[in-house]
Write a structure and sequence with these properties.
The chain is α+β, with helices and mostly antiparallel strands and about 140 residues long. It has one domain. The chain is built from 4 helices and 6 strands; from the N terminus they run αβααβαββββ. It has helices spanning about 1-20, 35-45, 50-60, 75-90, and strands at about 25, 70, 100-110, 110-115, 125-130, 135-140. Strands 1, 2, 3, 4, 5 and 6 form a 6-stranded mixed β-sheet that branches. The longest helix has 20 residues, at about 1-20. The protein is globular and about 40 Å long.
Amino acid sequence: MRIRHTALLLAMATAPICSAAAQTYACLSASDSLTINLRTHIVWLVTTADTSAANDRVMYQLPMTTTNKVTVVTNANLCSQAGAAYHSAVTPPGTPAVSRTVMSVLKVGNDRYVVRDWSHGAGGYGSTMVFDKHWNALAGTSP
């Protein structure tokens, strides 16, 4: 009985360490309809001369650029960085990491990333954050 109790305590003590290391952050593919819709909106936002779009570009700290400068990120390393940055930006310090597998990540211009987690936020519409190339949060929508 004592051996089982010790094993249970050991398992409980190491469980948070194991779960924190097992967090994954994955991007949706470029062909996913959610990612396509987000890219379409961001392309409009950063390519149009519309006054309302210009105001939003300034608010979100996005550059005016060309369509081909808005690309879908699928690189596993960048997706992992985006997920970790998103988590840090939308949760209080010390909040345990949560695996995110429904993220759309776009690179805009040379130094901006738009990250949307479709499962996080009110009403199932997701929450969007804009980051610089060092993963500093610049702007976003409230979850």
